[in-house]
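4.2 Preliminary Data

To establish feasibility before requesting continued support, the project team ran the inverse folding procedure on a target of 401 residues. The structure was first converted into the token representation described in Section 3, and no sequence information of any kind was made available to the design step. The complete token record follows.
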């Protein structure tokens, strides 16, 4: 689509929708790992044949997701614009100043956020996302992450996440002795015995900088990330499922892999982070109430924080109640539970075109009322990219004395 035409259509859509853009649902299919089937779709909708099974929903995504089947536009969200197909990525490229404000648009980074709900009926493999110094060698972005474990659905068979390694391993420099043989053999999941598992408590979460080893549990999870698809897998098997060893070195420069082999993968890990004896205390994030609100009909909390790369809030409104909403900048609004209205738009969890919106900069900064018109709590999430919330809270770091 010609950029001028796209801009005109986005501008008209912003005007007709009062600055709040409804989005189409964006689902991701993968082969190889079992789906959790907790995304609210019909049972038959999860199996997409050669594409695999639906295992995630992306939210206001500008980030394409690699898929062996070469599905066009996989991972890209679309505006819910009748009769027209415009991705969020193209809309922001053509009219970013209208959606995000001129200053953010001038930076050329879009929303700078990959948000999704991942839904597996197993624990994911032990892996690491690359830090800046390693990702730039393969022309990709680093990938910091934040998790919030969603309340309500069944937590699945393995509701715990492995993070890092036992502290003595890094303290005594045993990474090569204990981990390298397992990477070389590539025939088991025994690498997990050198890690520590933490229960996925619904209503809580974790913050994980790039470089941290982790194996996410089966709990349905809201995940915020830097927009990147870079990783290195350290686990060869999940039950009866064999993991292709190419996923260990897919983001390691070929010449380095040829020279150093599996040792080069160990260099991707932030060992100080992964061996932190206070990992739980320094990375576990529980909701923090905003402004110590006294209203009985609603509450708002930070749920993903401790980072300058992204943040998230949760707004809960009781039946018949309402709440003011005013934020520092553009965000994605996702309706997790219940129904209601905001500024002329219907909010309805699980209904395409009414459960996911991109709230423009101007509208986000103005004061609007969110109302609950249902018989259960209305629960909405607000998802923010880098630089939007200067007041995002941080945990106090604990260290050994």
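Position-by-position output of the design step:
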């Amino acid at each position: 689509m010609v950029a001028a035409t796209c801009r005109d259509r986005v501008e008209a859509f912003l005007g007709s929708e009062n600055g709040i853009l409804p989005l189409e649902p964006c689902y991701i299919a993968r082969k190889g790992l079992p789906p959790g089937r907790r995304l609210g779709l019909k049972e038959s909708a999860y199996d997409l044949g050669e594409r695999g099974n639906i295992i995630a929903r992306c939210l206001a995504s500008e980030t394409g997701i690699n898929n062996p089947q070469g599905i066009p536009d996989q991972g890209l969200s679309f505006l819910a614009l009748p009769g027209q197909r415009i991705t969020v990525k193209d809309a922001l490229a053509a009219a970013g100043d209208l959606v995000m404000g001129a200053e953010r648009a001038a930076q050329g980074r879009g929303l700078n956020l990959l948000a999704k709900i991942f839904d597996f009926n197993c624990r994911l493999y032990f892996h690491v996302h690359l830090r800046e110094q390693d990702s730039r060698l393969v022309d990709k972005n680093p990938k910091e992450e934040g998790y919030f474990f969603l309340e309500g659905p069944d937590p699945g068979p393995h509701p715990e996440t492995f993070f890092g390694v036992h502290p003595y391993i890094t303290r005594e420099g045993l990474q090569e002795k204990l981990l390298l043989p397992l990477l070389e053999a590539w025939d088991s999941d025994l690498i997990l015995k050198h890690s520590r598992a933490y229960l996925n408590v619904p209503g809580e979460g974790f913050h994980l900088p790039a470089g941290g080893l982790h194996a996410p549990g089966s709990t349905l999870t809201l995940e915020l990330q830097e927009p990147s698809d870079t990783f290195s897998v350290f686990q060869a098997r999940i039950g009866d499922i064999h993991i292709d060893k190419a996923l260990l070195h897919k983001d390691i420069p070929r010449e380095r892999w040829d020279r150093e082999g599996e040792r080069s993968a160990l260099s991707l890990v932030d060992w100080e982070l992964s061996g932190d004896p206070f990992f739980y205390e320094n990375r576990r994030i529980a909701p923090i109430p905003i402004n110590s609100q006294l209203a009985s009909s609603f509450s708002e909390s930070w749920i993903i924080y401790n980072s300058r790369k992204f943040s998230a809030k949760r707004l809960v409104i009781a039946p018949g109640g309402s709440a003011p909403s005013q934020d520092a900048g553009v965000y994605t609004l996702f309706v997790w539970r219940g129904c209601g209205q905001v500024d002329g738009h219907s909010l309805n969890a699980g209904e395409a075109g009414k459960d996911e919106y991109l709230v423009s900069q101007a509208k986000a900064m103005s004061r609007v009322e969110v109302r609950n018109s249902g018989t259960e709590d209305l629960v909405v999430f607000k998802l923010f990219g880098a630089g939007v919330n200067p007041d995002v809270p941080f945990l106090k770091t604990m260290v050994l004395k």
